[in-house]
Specification:
The protein is of the alpha/beta class. The protein has 2 helices and 4 strands, in the order E-H-E-E-H-E. The chain has one domain (3-111): 2-Layer Sandwich (Macrophage Migration Inhibitory Factor).
């Protein structure tokens, strides 16, 4: 089950927020084959002074971070990045972070997905 976080630095309309969440969700469905009821997506709106934007970016800068368990194929991760970028507005950034277990421990086999 991937956990996604969308961070922005300006207010968005309800429709824009819903579209951002839906774009990330659809990318997860297609790239990671998550179950249709697996929607772990958080939207966070920062004050502009709390979210410095790189000089080459605009106020539309959007950071999407998706945490996934190790074991997902590199192809699935690449596909997820491409789909997120295609579904979101221009000049956005997508970061993938694999969730790790504590040193010396191993997740139970049921927690180690083998899906693409």
């Amino acid at each position: 089950m991937p956990i996604a976080k969308i961070e922005v630095c300006r207010p968005r309309t309800r429709e824009e927020v819903a579209a951002l969440i839906e774009a990330v969700y659809q990318a997860q469905l297609l790239a990671l084959k998550v179950p249709e009821d697996d929607k772990q997506i958080r939207y966070i709106e920062h004050k502009p002074e709390h979210f410095p934007v790189p000089p080459s970016k605009t106020a539309n800068y959007t950071l999407v971070e998706i945490q996934i368990f190790p074991g997902r194929s590199l192809d699935a991760k690449r596909k997820l990045c491409v789909l997120d970028r295609a579904g979101l507005q221009p000049r956005c950034m997508t970061a993938l972070r694999c969730r790790r277990n504590a040193p010396g421990t191993q997740a139970p086999s049921s927690a180690r997905p083998t899906r693409p």
